[in-house]
Amino acid sequence: MTSHATNDALDAESDLVPYYPMPRSGACPFAPHATLRKMAASGAPAKVRIWDDSTPWIVTGHADQRALLLDARMSNNEKAAGYPHMTRGRSETAKHTPPMITNTDAPEHTRLRRLVNGPFLAKRIEALRPKIQQVVDERIDDLLAGPKPVDLVKTFGLPVPTLVICDLLGVPYDDHEFFQDCSNRCISHSSSEQEAAEASAALAGKFGELIELKMKEPANDVLSQMGAFVTSGQMTHLEAILQCTAMLIAGHETTASMISLGTLALLQNPDQLAQLRERWDEPAFVANAVEELLRYLTIVHSGIRRIATEPVEVGGVRIEAGDGVIFDLASANYDPAAFPDPDTLDLTRPARTHHAFGVGPHQCLGQSLARVELQVVYSTLYRRIPGLALAEPGATADVNFDGVAYGLHSLPVTW
Amino acid sequence: MKVIVDEPKCVASGQCVFAAPDVFDQRDDDGVAIVLVEEPTGEMVPGVREAVAVCPAAAIRLTQE
Question: Which domains does chain A have, with CATH numbers?
Fold first, then answer.
């Protein structure tokens, strides 16, 4: 068996198995790490070492990722031995996590996904556009009326998606700092097991209260809908709490990162920014610009994880049943076979087939919401503040690499 | 050309509706894709092809008839 020989050889020469995730460079944070690009150039899945010293496969090619993430033999069963968990904290919480869209396979996954998908129906998301535009315009009014320079992360990038997701869920905005703080501590790689568990318990407690409140006095929001699922027996109270927690965490941090990082990337590419400013009223151009920025930035940088339930051949290697598999999304989005000249930000290139939201049935639940938010932000911010510029040009970007998705600690801007 | 949705596979992501709003819709209760125009022609075709390409569950296929 050549594949076994290859695996054993790779394992034996541990020095040659690079550690994953790899640190990004603060000076050039967007592109995948040089080691990953070398692995991607070899054209076959390779091995990496992760926090628990195990050596799962890493898949980097765009076509390989698509084929495998659509393959039913790649399982999300995070309770299975050998599942390549992201952190020690997550390996612990996985043991006690009930079935959710993140840890189940079809047909159970399909049933759960359709159940929680209600608020994300295409027409409902599209109907939120005026509300999102209003939120964005009000924040810009405040920026223009206030002092400068400002930190764009704190004054715009974080508040916009937080307001939108809190509105969608039905979370009172007064609680937003509490939710933001807890979700940061839940997902940061620098949180200890206990810190992550405490933050997650605090979030769960608050959501528990809110859902019970909504069961008594339902409103037109996600928390009320989850409350109704609990009442009808389609979900347990705990499942509803965990689902809301996941939506909140996934719903504000990532979009916030895309707003601030997207602005930084555009300020570094003034010709692209100029196009966006001129063509802000062309929906198809703006929509594609969002796709290209999603591809170029690929903020989810810790890899999505699966475990093989049966042997799978890909790129000339054989992944055995029980092997962990990691998909580095940025590598696929910088695969020159899919996106020629990938290091160039080109808002007019066809970019829609990027993997920034993952690919396959587990692709991001909130992707359409994120798209509409980013379309509104990118078509409004630079038009309304045409002189937007870095307040400290030449300073190294203040990148936060800690979470599942990278972002900026701060982005001082002026105009 | 005929559009076929493999219903058990559909995860209700609605990406087909964004790609080709004249051809696809979603059921209100569970978000499963509905085909509005089974045999799209002309200007509808590029959107339908995009829907096939971006469906996260690869649940849409086209047959030539």
Answer: 2-414 (1.10.630.10)
